[in-house]
Amino acid sequence: MKLLRVGTAGSERPALLDAEGTLRDLSGVVPDIDGPLLADDEALGRIRTAAESGELPVLDPAGLRVGAPLARIGKIVCIGLNYHDHARETGAEPPAEPVIFFKAADTVVGPYDTVLVPRGSTKTDWEVELAVVIGRTARYLDSVEEALAHVAGYAVAHDVSEREFQIERGGTWDKGKNCETFNPLGPWLVTSDEVPDPQDLSLKLWVNGDLKQDGTTAEQIFPVGEVVRYVSQFMTLYPGDVINTGTPAGVALGEPEPKPFLRAGDVVELEIEGLGRQRQELKDA
């Protein structure tokens, strides 16, 4: 299923994109798309039954904002340097264990919302990423197979990053990762049954129409199942938590000088095979 949320920011309602590409209203079936829903097999079954009936009300997408596909995100766990090609382009050694950092849930915006260049920023960068959405409480998982069984679905994430704040201003990476609007998510949450192999997905990103990133999740150093298993050894993952699993090569940081960091007026578009496409215009904060 392709689950999404539509409407003005803060007032989104749950919806579904059916097999024919028709947008349908789910607000009469479930109150929202969130962690409790993803953990409720009965509620998910009601959605499937309603979708198969063809009787869900049709929504006109014209002029209808698409929000993030998940409400009330608990935490966003991020994996750094998780693609072999991205490590090569930045001159970094592949890590022996997954590199973990965090983004606050309030960095999440819709897939077509404006992204704000922080005040004083000269090194705002792009990163297309596969987001993993947790559907069952996960703690101390024993195997990759068990870990994948705890995944509710997948989405496109844009891990916008400010490299000066991240790398040159001291401390951890978090200052360069948590500026407002720095995690567009969506357009859909695609349930895991429709993504048979998360290690066989293409990822692309364009800046002002120029293709910058063209990668595949097959390049991940730590595959999705191993990432979920590993993270569960250090923290409990709850339904509705999100893991951003890293970005392939092609970021501005990896380009020759002068590096083409983002500025107000730039347009970024990104997509992951089967998970949809995003588009954001940048403006000054």
Looking at this protein, list some descriptive labels.
single chain; 285 residues; alpha+beta; Fumarylacetoacetate hydrolase, domain 2; 2 domains; nine-stranded mixed β-sheet; five-stranded mixed β-sheet; globular
Q: What is the average of the pLDDT values?
A: 97
Largest sheet: 9 strands, mixed
As residue ranges, the low-confidence spans are: none
| Sheet/helix structural class | alpha+beta
How much strand?
Answer: 25-35%
- Strand arrangement in the largest pleated sheet: 3-2-1-13-10-9-16-4-5
**Termini gap:** 36 Å
CATH architectural group of the largest domain: Alpha-Beta Complex
Q: Which H/E pattern describes the elements?
A: EEEHHEHEEEEEHEEHEEEEHEEE
Beta strand count: 18
Pfam families: FAA_hydrolase
Family: Belongs to the FAH family.
GO molecular function: hydrolase activity; metal ion binding
InterPro entries: FAH, Fumarylacetoacetase-like_C, Fumarylacetoacetase_C_sf
What is the fold's blueprint, element by element?
Layout (H helix, E strand, L loop, with lengths): L1 E5 L6 E5 L5 E3 L9 H4 L2 H13 L22 E5 L3 H6 L9 E5 L4 E2 L5 E3 L6 E2 L2 E7 L9 H5 L2 E8 L2 E2 H6 L14 E2 L4 E3 L10 E6 L2 E7 L7 H8 L10 E3 L22 E6 L3 E9 L1
Parallel strand pairs: 4-16, 6-12, 7-18
Antiparallel strand pairs: 1-2, 1-13, 2-3, 4-5, 8-11, 9-10, 9-16, 10-13, 14-15, 14-17, 17-18
Fold and architecture overview:
The chain is of the alpha+beta class and 285 residues long. The chain folds into two domains: 2-53, no CATH class; 76-284, Fumarylacetoacetate hydrolase, domain 2. Helices cover 15% and strands 29% of the residues. The protein has six helices and 18 strands. Strands 3-2-1-13-10-9-16-4-5 form a nine-stranded mixed sheet, covered by helices on one side. The longest helix is centred in the N-terminal third of the chain and has 13 residues, at 41-53. The chain is globular and about 55 Å long. One of its GO terms (biological process) is small molecule metabolic process. Belongs to the FAH family. This is Fumarylacetoacetate hydrolase family protein. Keywords: Hydrolase, Metal-binding.
